[in-house]
Structure formats: structure tokens, C-alpha cells
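Quick check before the chapter quiz. The format below is the same one you will see on the exam, so make sure you can read both the input and the output lines.
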Amino acid sequence: MELIKRPRRLRGSEVLRKMVRETRVDKASLIYPMFVKEGSGIIEEIPTMPGQYRYSVDTCGEILLKLQDRGVNNVMFFGIPDHKDEVGSGAYDPDGIVQKALRKARKDFPGMYLITDVCMCEYTSHGHCGVLCGEYVDNDRTLELLAKTALSHVEAGADMVAPSDMMDGRVLAIRKCLDEAGHVTTPIMSYAVKYASAFYGPFRDAAGSAPAFGDRKSYQMDFHNSREGIKEALMDVEEGADIIMVKPAMSYLDMVAKVKEAVKVPVAAYSVSGEYAMVKAGASLGYIEEDRIVAEMAASVYRAGCDIYLTYFAPEIARMIDEGRIG
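Here is the expected output.
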């Protein structure tokens, strides 16, 4: 058979396959999400996320050291306070759990890049992402508190803030607040395209952030919609977002690709707790090979157009990069 074009020619060896690879996975683009809580001496495994832990400020250095040794230098802090109230005051308390973790990490790990999740849900007694008016989340009253939270994080040592609340106008409110305080160079990574997803279940267990009533569908996006996601992304860029995030990742790669085409800023994707838990559950039953699945999931996100990948598997991906199994 006379064939001129043979795509298999470029698949003949591992060296050649790596040479012509279209998608690259880089440790520098990985962000590891971690949970910090009040107390001391705490390294507490999360039942719904095997292999992930809640740390107190005095123990979080253990995981930061492991990450640093793997070459993962970017982390995002999520706080679990002891006290919750109607207005989530622990979120913007200068001595709040995230603020204390930031100061400790900044002192002990000056080379780490510290990012914080900016939201109210872990800190409110009702579990919603903003101030309530009856049972309705008051968008505009919440903006001031989100801005105060972001500012308190930056003053405590955060390199970047990442609002996840999905209130309209929160990027602009945070940008103005940071700029007025002199933090004009602090980037904002916006959870711009954040869907109301069943994939968040294990996270709500990990952070104790499940709403006490109702759901978050009045502010997080309907998973049936894609044009709405582009609108959200473009609005946040106009308000000053430096990075746009799509969340979740695995079932929303179409949105990663569409957002990548629509905006001229870096695009992040967050592989959330439910994605992690499903892989762990399948692997524990022997149904899948964990490393191979994790590598494939990561490559698919970058292939879709992702520049930054938030994942609980960040240290495992870094190890596989070192081993030449992904990259």
C-alpha cells in the first residue's frame, strides 16, 4: 500500500513522542489547595478526601516542606475557623486563621507563592457566601466584606487573592480596595466561571461550609449554560481580574477552551474535591490506575487551554513530571 502520510511515524518511540508533544505540563503552573484550621498539633485526615488533611498553623509547615521538595511552590489557603457568625467576621479578622497561616508561611517559607480563597461561606453561621437579607444573599452588602477580607489577606502576606463567592461586582470592589491601600501590584485570580456543582460535596465536608438551608444556585452558575460563563469571564476581566478560573475542571473543559478563546489573560482550572474523591475511590477498589488517571486528567486540562491547574494531586503530578511520565 502506497501511503505518503503516516501519522504513526511520530509515535514510534518515547523520545519522539515527547519531542512532538503538543501539550506540556509544568510544575510552575500547579497550585495546591490546603486547609488550615484553628488549634495546635493538628494533622487531621479528611474522611471524604483520603490523603488530604486539615492542618493547624504549627503543622502546616510539614506539607509546605513536602510541596517545596517536590517543586510545587504555589499554594492556596482555605480557612476553617472556630467561630462563625452571621457576617463571617472571621474572614476579615486580622488574627483569623488564614491570616495567621499566611504570616507563619511567609516567615518560614519565603520562596512559596501564597494565594488565598476569598469567600464568606466557611465563616458564616448559615454557610452562605455572603450577608443574608432574610434567606437571600445580599450581593452589594457582601462586597464590602469581601474587599475587607482580601485586604486583610494581603496585609498578612498573601501574594494573590482569589474571590470565589460569585457576587456580582466583587472583583471591582476588591481591586479598588487593594489599590487604595497601595497594593496595586497584587493580582486577582477570579473564580469567574464557577458552576453550582455536585462535584463540591467533599470540600464542604472538609471545610464545614455546607449551607444551613437552601443552596447556592442563586449566585453560582447553572451547569447547563456556557454563554453565561463567557459573560462572567469578560465582566471580571473588565473589573480588573488578572487570571480567570473555571471551576470544576473535568466536566467543564469545553468552558476552559471557550474562555481561553474569549479572554487575553491566563486561564486557570480547579480540579475540585469530587474529582479527587472519585479517583481515590476508584483506585482503592482496583477499578482504575490512579497515576495514569491523574496524568490523563491533568493533560486534558492543559490541552483544553488551561495555563494554571489547581489540584489536590499537585505533588503526585510533580513526581510524575520528575519520572518523565507526564510533561
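If your answer matched, good. The longest strand covers residues 30-37.
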